[in-house]
Amino acid sequence: SGAGGQAGVHEQRRTVQDVEIDELGHVNNLRYLEWMLAAAVDHSSAVGWPAERYRELGNAWVVRSHAIEYLRPAFVDDDLRVRTWVSDMSKVSSRRKTTVSRADGATLARCETLWVFVSRRAHALDRVPPELAAAFPLVPDAPPRVR
Fold it and tell me: What's the CA gap between 118 and 6, in Å, rounded?
């Protein structure tokens, strides 16, 4: 589902759970990574590319790198928006950007992930099929903040 109707931007909503809180009383930084990965998988499913379709094709996306900037903490019961979009797609890779923000619009974290497309059989880079690339409209810049 597009955030504010922006094509190519997918949004997941979540409420921070007790189990996601660390000894400092805020969300553990690894949870943000889990949320970002979950949003990427959900986005792919939403545009017609669930995990089974990749398996049938004999391919998978794997993470080459993550860059995460943590801006503000999140606390138990915070209502969050995880927004994700593909900013670039090449023959064998894709760059995905993700933001985590509170319902009030405050950005808590920003992430950029470089994914590479691989053959499950060969364990090597493989070409992104045109029909897969076409499923993700590119969003070069961050979407406007929803207040």
Answer: 29
